[in-house]
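ok new one. same drill as before - C-alpha cells go in, u give me an amino acid for every spot. 472 of them this time. try not to just spam alanines like last time pls lmao
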C-alpha cells in the first residue's frame, strides 16, 4: 500500500509528512506502563491509540518494529509493594499480568518488543558513564544528575526557554543540584529499600532515574536514531524533554526520534481522574460490569487522538449503541485472523474502483489519524450493509482491522465455538510454548493473536502453564 502519511509533530509544532530513516522499515517507541497498579482508562487510551497506529503502520510498510517498555523499578512501585506487604517482584509480576489481560480484552496487539527496565540496568549505566565523561552529567552526594545547561536545545519540545523554566520552577531545589531543572540519572539506595530495587553501579548501590530508562531501552532496540516516539501529553515535559537531552548528548550527532506524537488527556465527567475524587476507573471495573472490550476500545478512540477525551455515562452509552449497530447483522464467520486482515489490506489497490470505503478509511488514517472521520464513515457503511453485500463485506473488514468486533453480539456463537476443537487449541498453546522457549517471541505473539481473533483468550499462569477460555 502506497499512501503518504502525515501527522502533527510536537517537536516542530506542525503537520509533517512521514519520511522513514530506513525505507519501508518503521521504528516506533512508546512509553509503556509503570506497573504499580492495574491500568486505568487514561492508561488504556494511550495504549489503544498507539495500537491503532501500529495496525495502520503494519499494512503500510514492509517491516515495523514497535517497542513499548515496562517500568518495573520506580518509587511508586516501592511504596505500593510496601502498602501491600509483598515484594516488588511479586507486585510487578502481578500487575504486568493484569496489564496484559486488560489490554488483550481491548483487542490490543502485543508490540514487537516489551523490555523491562530492570533487565537493562547495564545499558543505563553505560549511557550515564558516557554523559559524565563528556561533561553532560555530574555526581554529587551519591546522586548522578544531568546538567540541563549543557544542552542548548533543552526546552525545545516543550517550547519553553531554559531561563524561564528555571525562574518559574516550583520544585524544591535539592542541595545536590546545580540548578532546579537538573534531573536524576542515578539515585542512591536507602536503608528501607527492597533489595530487588537496589542495583550495583560505579556510583554505589541504588537505582536509575525514570528518564534514563526509556533512553536506554529505545536505543537498545531501535538504535540511536529512529522514526517516531509517542506517549501521553503529560509526558511531553519533563519526561520526553529529558529523554531527548540525555540521548542526544550521549550519542553526539543523533536526532534521537525524528517525530514526536502525543495523545490527549482523559477526564471523567469533566474532572481529572483522581483517587481522591473517587472517579478513578480501571479497565477491569468496566469489564466486570459486562461492558465488552470492543465497546471500551471504541469509546477510547471516539475522539481525535490529540484532543482530550471525557469519559461519561452518555459517551459509554453511545459507544455501546454504536458497536451493537455495527455488529447486529454479523455472525462468527465475520471474525478474521490478523494475518488474513493484513493480507487483504496490503493488497488494496488505490488505482481500481473497488473497496472504496476501505480506501477512504485508510486515507483518513493517513491524514493525522483522523479516527473521528473513520467512525462517521463506519456509521454510513453500517446503514448500507443491511441491503448491500459489498458494503457489509467492507464493514466486516474495517471492524476487524480497527479491532472493533464484539464477539458477544455475533450470531451463532455456540456453533462457532463447537467448530474449534480443544485439541486444536492445545496444539496452538504447545506451539506457542515452544516458540517462547526458543525466544521466537514474534511467532508466540502471532499464535496468541490468531487465537484471540477466534475469540479464544490465553492466560499465562504460575509455573509456565497457560489456561484458555472463550471470550464471553
Amino acid at each position: 500500500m502506497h499512501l503518504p502519511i502525515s501527522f502533527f509533530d510536537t517537536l516542530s509544532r506542525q503537520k509533517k509528512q512521514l519520511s522513514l530513516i530506513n525505507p519501508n522499515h518503521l521504528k516506533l517507541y512508546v512509553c509503556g506502563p509503570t506497573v504499580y497498579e492495574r491500568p486505568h482508562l487514561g492508561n488504556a487510551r494511550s495504549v489503544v491509540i498507539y495500537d491503532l497506529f501500529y495496525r495502520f503502520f503494519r499494512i503500510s510498510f514492509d517491516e515495523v518494529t514497535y517497542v513499548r517498555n515496562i517500568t518495573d523499578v520506580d518509587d511508586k512501585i516501592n511504596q505500593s509493594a510496601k502498602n501491600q506487604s509483598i515484594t516488588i517482584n511479586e507486585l510487578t509480576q502481578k500487575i504486568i499480568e493484569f496489564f496484559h489481560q486488560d489490554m488483550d480484552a481491548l483487542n490490543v496487539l502485543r508490540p514487537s518488543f516489551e523490555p523491562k527496565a530492570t533487565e537493562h540496568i547495564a545499558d543505563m549505566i553505560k549511557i550515564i558513564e558516557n554523559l559524565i565523561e563528556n561533561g553532560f552529567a555530574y555526581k554529587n552526594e551519591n546522586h548522578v544528575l544531568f546538567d540541563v545547561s549543557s544542552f542548548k536545545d533543552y526546552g525545545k519540545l516543550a517550547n519553553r526557554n531554559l531561563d524561564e523554566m528555571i525562574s518559574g520552577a516550583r520544585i524544591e531545589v535539592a542541595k545536590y543540584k546545580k540548578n532546579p531543572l537538573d534531573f536524576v540519572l542515578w539515585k542512591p539506595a536507602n536503608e528501607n529499600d527492597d533489595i530487588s530495587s537496589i542495583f550495583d553501579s560505579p556510583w554505589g548501590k541504588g537505582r536509575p532515574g525514570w528518564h534514563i530508562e526509556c533512553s536506554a531501552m529505545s536505543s537498545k532496540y531501535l538504535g540511536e536514531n529512529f522514526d517516531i516516539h509517542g506517549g501521553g501529553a503529560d509526558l511531553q515535559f519533563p519526561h520526553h524533554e529529558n529523554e531527548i537531552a540525555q540521548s542526544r548528548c550521549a550519542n553526539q550527532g543523533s536526532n534521537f526520534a525524528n517525530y514526536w506524537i502525543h495523545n490527549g488527556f482523559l477526564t471523567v465527567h469533566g474532572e481529572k481522574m483522581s483517587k481522591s475524587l473517587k472517579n478513578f476507573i480501571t479497565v477491569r471495573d468496566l469489564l466486570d460490569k459486562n461492558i465488552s472490550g470492543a465497546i471500551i476500545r471504541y469509546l477510547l478512540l471516539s475522539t481525535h487522538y490529540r484532543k482530550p477525551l471525557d469519559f461519561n455515562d452518555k459517551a459509554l452509552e453511545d459507544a455501546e449503541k454504536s458497536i451493537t449497530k455495527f455488529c447486529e447483522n454479523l455472525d462468527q464467520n465475520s471474525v478474521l485472523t490478523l494475518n488474513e486482515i493484513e493480507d487483504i489490506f496490503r493488497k488494496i489497490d488505490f488505482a481500481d474502483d473497488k473497496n472504496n470505503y476501505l480506501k477512504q478509511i485508510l486515507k483518513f488514517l493517513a491524514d493525522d489519524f483522523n479516527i473521528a472521520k473513520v467512525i462517521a464513515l463506519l456509521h454510513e457503511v453500517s446503514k448500507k450493509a443491511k441491503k448491500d453485500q459489498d458494503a457489509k463485506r467492507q464493514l466486516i473488514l474495517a471492524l476487524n482491522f480497527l479491532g472493533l468486533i464484539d464477539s458477544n453480539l455475533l450470531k451463532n456463537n455456540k456453533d462457532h465455538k463447537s467448530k474449534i476443537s480443544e485439541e486444536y487449541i492445545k496444539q496452538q498453546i504447545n506451539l506457542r510454548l515452544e516458540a517462547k522457549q526458543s525466544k521466537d517471541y514474534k511467532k508466540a505473539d502471532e499464535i496468541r493473536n490468531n487465537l484471540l481473533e477466534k475469540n479464544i483468550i490465553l492466560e499465562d499462569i504460575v509455573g509456565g502453564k497457560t489456561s484458555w477460555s472463550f471470550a464471553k
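Confidence is low (pLDDT under 50) at residues 413-418. and btw The domain at 268-415 is CATH 1.10.730 (Isoleucyl-tRNA Synthetase; Domain 1).
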